[in-house]
Amino acid sequence: xxxxxxxxxxxxxxxxxxxxxxxxxxxxxxxxxxxxxxxxxxxxxxxxxxxxxxxxxxxxxxxxxxxxxxxxxxxxxxxxxxxxxxxxxxxxxxxxxxxxxxxxxxxxxxxxxxxxxxxxxxxxxxxxx
Length: 129
What we know:
Pfam families: YjbR. This is YjbR protein. This protein is an alpha+beta fold. It has a single domain, classed as Aspartate Aminotransferase, domain 1 (Alpha-Beta Complex). It has four helices and six strands, in the order H-E-E-E-E-H-E-E-H-H. A six-stranded antiparallel beta sheet has the order 1-2-3-4-6-5. The two termini are 28 Å apart. The model has no long low-confidence stretch (mean pLDDT 93).
């Protein structure tokens, strides 16, 4: 369901694995980035009229309600099938993606899932790559 040589995945992977204790696994055929809980997935889909439409080049993150609502006004964002009702949002990635914004989204999702000890480690770092 994904191409290991995908340059967008490579960029996302570099950002996601820079978080404390972050690791990668394959979940439901897609890369997932996690500590004890998943904080990001690469790729997703939406269900329209009973048919799944793929967003193969996207990142799924778990955001707070206000952040999520603001992003849903943008065409590049979508409510992913299955995870959407639990607060997850998908953001399409392209060659023009603002990777600083993606890092901020990963940071927000990480903070919601990683637990206080890991967040404290993150906060103690002066800067990440």
